[in-house]
Design brief:
- By secondary structure, the chain is of the alpha/beta class.
- It contains 19 helices and 8 strands.
- It has a domain of 340 residues: NAD(P)-binding Rossmann-like Domain (Rossmann fold, 3-Layer(aba) Sandwich).
- InterPro entries: NAD(P)-bd_dom_sf (IPR036291), Prochl_reduct (IPR005979), SDR_fam (IPR002347).
- Keywords: Chlorophyll biosynthesis, NADP, Oxidoreductase, Photosynthesis, Signal.
Length: 548
């Protein structure tokens, strides 16, 4: 009975449109030597990779993820000693938190981190990738250069995350409902006061800096002089644009959700460690009690956790924000709540106030996003995996596809590319000659062995081929009738002939019409006279009769 019920379930699944989604991640049963070890290490918890987990927003988000009891968090950090201290102070569950060294200032370090992570996860898919690490150096009068000779802010905030996503995409693709979340900023979205009303404005122009390789002395993506604040804003704009681009390119074919979010202005964040002392002292006070746009690290961490955990945030291609703003918390209310209220510029309120925020035209620029993807791939040396299309769950189609794949490859090698320009006849490569030779031998062998056997079996099982199948339809083929197109003169002549014939017919009919009218008139007169005579006789008779 169990076998029958299982078979019924399979038939039901394969008989619905859900079969495509089911078969997308289905694989033939195989023996995985690491399966038991992976289960012992992770249990049923989801695997999360979080960059910048040792401080600020990342630290609080890691704490929230661990407290939920549903995740194993891998923290990518550049200071392992600091991370261990944070784990002890915050009471991290060390069984479910694994720190790993990753210097975002170096592409080589990012690659090594990804390799180490692949070994550590024992084949377990990655369920969440939170691109949080960042640096903000607005007061720098000159650029700092990374290990790879690129401007530091852009590499740490965007390029290294770009490379990391490309390396971890296969592991994300294997997870059901995986998410990649990029921490954006209101400063990268110029349809807000924070992004469009404060100079410098985030603007990539035509990406001239990236087009030239983005190495020293080129320090800005647009190719102009270095401005520390603009470098940060440009990097956040790049992250938000890339979230949209990867959503368009990969979401439907992989099921991975790509989105960005703005947690609010964390005025006391270590992100401002590069700012001057007076700014670090008074900026939090200004944000708390004047604008009401302050968001504490704890609340911001809860928001990043929400985008990773909340089922609503599984939606792809979204820029998440939280309802609220300066209008909801100034003056007295800010003082009463110690400034920790709804943040400005879309920072918003609590868990239930999350919403899909508007994105500027720059963030939604598909053409520039395509260029950005192309240049960033070239700069980082990223290798993006081939797309995994969702195919029919029909087993026969899969078998036929596997069998014909080699044949298609061989046939393509036989094709010759043509061009308008005259070219000398190229000699066939040794590989092409070998392929064509092998193809002839294999084709001849199959035709005279497997082909003949199949033909014989077909006759034995199905019988002779019917004559109708050989000769086709018995319907007679009719020659299409030629339609003669007459000239204007011939048409006019035909009309004249028709008119003359009509006149003749009218003239022939006229006497009979006249005759018929004369006969009718004569008949009428006879009837009228007869009736008059009868009336007169009746009158005279009545006058001679005596009265009673």
């Amino acid at each position: 009975m169990r076998a029958l019920s299982g078979l019924s379930l399979w038939i039901t699944i394969l008989g619905t449109t859900n079969a495509f989604q089911f078969m997308q991640g289905w694989k033939l049963p195989t023996y995985d030597p690491n399966a038991k070890a992976a289960e012992e290490r992770f249990g049923d918890k989801k695997l999360v990779v979080l960059t910048g987990a040792s401080s600020g927003l990342g630290r609080k988000a890691a704490q929230a993820l661990l407290l939920s009891g549903e995740y194993h968090v891998v923290g990518a950090v550049r200071d392992m000693d600091k991370m261990e201290a944070v784990m002890e102070v915050d009471g991290f569950d060390t069984d479910n938190f694994t720190p790993m060294y990753c210097e975002m200032n170096s592409f080589d370090s990012v690659r090594k981190f990804c390799d180490q992570l692949d070994e550590f996860r024992l084949g377990k898919p990655i369920d969440r990738l939170l691109c949080n690490a960042g640096v903000y150096q607005p007061s720098l009068p000159y650029p700092k250069w990374s290990v790879d000779n690129h401007e530091q802010t852009m590499q740490i905030n965007f390029l290294s995350h770009f490379l990391m996503i490309s390396r971890l995409l296969p592991a994300l693709r294997d997870a059901p409902n995986a998410r990649v979340i990029m921490v954006g900023s209101v400063t990268g979205n110029d349809n807000t006061v924070g992004g469009g009303g404060v100079y410098p404005i985030a603007d990539l122009h035509e990406l001239e800096g990236f087009a030239q390789g983005f190495t020293n002395p080129i320090s800005m993506i647009d190719g102009y002089d270095f401005i520390g604040a603009k470098a940060y804003k440009d990097s956040k704009l790049c992250l938000m644009m890339m979230a949209n681009y990867l959503h368009t390119k990969y979401h439907k074919l992989t099921g991975i959700s790509f989105s960005s979010m703005y947690p609010g202005c964390i005025a006391e964040s270590p992100l401002f460690r590069e700012k001057r002392a007076w700014f670090r002292q008074y900026f939090p006070v200004f944000m708390k009690f004047i604008t009401g746009g302050f968001v504490g690290e704890h609340e911001a961490g809860q928001r990043l956790f929400q985008t990773a955990h909340d089922p609503r945030c599984a939606k792809s291609g979204v820029y998440w924000g939280w309802n609220g703003g300066p209008r909801e918390g100034r003056g007295k209310r800010a003082l009463e709540q110690n400034g920790q209220i709804s943040g400005g510029g879309g920072a918003g309120g609590g868990w239930d106030s999350i919403f899909e925020n508007d994105q500027s035209a720059k963030v939604l620029d598909v053409d520039r996003a395509t260029l950005l993807f192309h240049y960033a791939t070239k700069i980082t040396g990223a290798e993006w995996p081939e797309l995994k299309a969702v195919t029919s769950p029909c087993p026969t189609l899969n078998v036929v596809g596997a069998v014909t794949k080699g044949m298609v490859r061989r046939e393509e090698l036989k094709r010759v590319k043509h061009s308008q320009a005259k070219e000398e006849k190229k000699k066939k490569s040794l590989r092409r000659k070998l392929v064509l030779g092998v193809d002839r031998v294999v084709t001849f062998a199959l035709k005279n062995t497997v082909g003949r056997v199949a033909k014989l079996l077909g006759k034995r099982v199905l019988g002779e081929i019917p004559e109708t199948a050989k000769q086709g339809s018995f319907h007679e083929t009719q020659t299409p009738t030629e339609i003669k197109v007459e000239t204007v003169d011939s048409v006019l002549e035909q009309l004249d002939r028709n008119q003359a014939l009509l006149n003749e017919q009218i003239e022939e009919a006229q006497p009979s019409v006249v005759f018929n009218d004369a006969e009718d008139e004569k008949l009428f007169e006879q009837i009228y006279v007869k009736t008059s005579v009868e009336n007169q006789n009746a009158t005279s008779t009545s006058s001679l009769t005596p009265s009673a």
